[in-house]
């Protein structure tokens, strides 16, 4: 916006010596006069720039800052009242390049230059928002925002980690919410800056530390709301990759509900605010206790019903047993008589068998003794006959046994020849002889 410089007097008016100026203004009067002069001088103005810190109050009024898209430090505070905000046909967001029309005045309570916006139109994305879109497209193509890689959050965590600034209100909101909802859950804080040039490296270090220590089931990354510049650390690529690669499931609650960062897209679960992140990370203990009480009552009721049914069935069986006692009594008596008869019959059979066995044993012994005597007599006869056939007994009667040098028994003169060595066995010894002559006896009549 270019404005002509207002005409000023070449020299300041000097009060008359010895007499005060004609009028002394109060602060409010001066600011009001300056505001009136601006409106008279400028009237309605059109300004273009980049939105930053856009918020919509519960009353419907909108407040934001307009800055030059080229990165200059000049900023303009803007307010858009509910009547004009209701006519917006788009959703303003930080980083967006817009054109506004309004009146420039001085906001007296703070003495600030302010623009009351009557109309707001989009003109395209600002430089930071364009960078945001390019980086989002690149990381999305790398798969860091894929739904398939997101993990479920632990339903009943034993410990929850919080990565945030210890000086921020977001950490206080998270701790208060967790203490109210789940006082039994242990909370571990991994401190880190959440704004400024050192914030990305500290956030990455805190995320890595939480993964290495393996002491929490869920990790909350959070900070309060702010402009796109204030939240820019959560668009840093290193931070986004650290969240996507975290060993612990991450719930991200950065800024207000309308704020969206790349860290939100990479987290396993996005929460609209830090308080909502705490609510998503931990269940309400009282609700869990009520559910446990309900389950205990259900189990107790089921067990009581089962015991009642078992007791009724036992009573029914007992009644049937009592009714059948009269029927079973005769059968019992009959069974006893049969058992007695069986014992008597088995006793008789056993006695008879024992007698038969004793008689058989006697007969066997008698038969065995007679047979043994007969076999012994026969054995004596056979032994005597065998003794008579003993060659030694024959030799004792004066006979001799003649054998050749090949141990062949000589029975005929034809087996002999003169000069042949012979072995003659006698009853009491043996001798070696050599025949001088051999005569064969002719067989006599009757041989």
What does this structure look like?
The structure is a single chain. The chain is of the alpha/beta class and 447 residues long. Helix content is 43%, strand content 20%. It contains ten helices and 13 strands. It has helices spanning 27-42, 82-85, 127-141, 169-181, 199-213, 237-244, 262-266, 274-281, 285-388, 391-395, and strands at residues 44-56, 62-67, 75-80, 96-107, 112-125, 159-164, 186-191, 218-223, 250-254, 269-270, 401-404, 422-426, 429-433. Helix 4 packs parallel to helix 8 (274-281) and helix 5 runs parallel beside helix 6. The chain is elongated and about 205 Å long. The termini are far apart.
Give a topology summary.
Elements: H1 27-42, E1 44-56, E2 62-67, E3 75-80, H2 82-85, E4 96-107, E5 112-125, H3 127-141, E6 159-164, H4 169-181, E7 186-191, H5 199-213, E8 218-223, H6 237-244, E9 250-254, H7 262-266, E10 269-270, H8 274-281, H9 285-388, H10 391-395, E11 401-404, E12 422-426, E13 429-433
Parallel strand pairs: 3-5, 6-7, 6-8, 8-9, 9-10
Antiparallel strand pairs: 1-2, 1-4, 2-3, 4-5, 11-12, 12-13
Helix pairs in contact: 4-8, 5-6
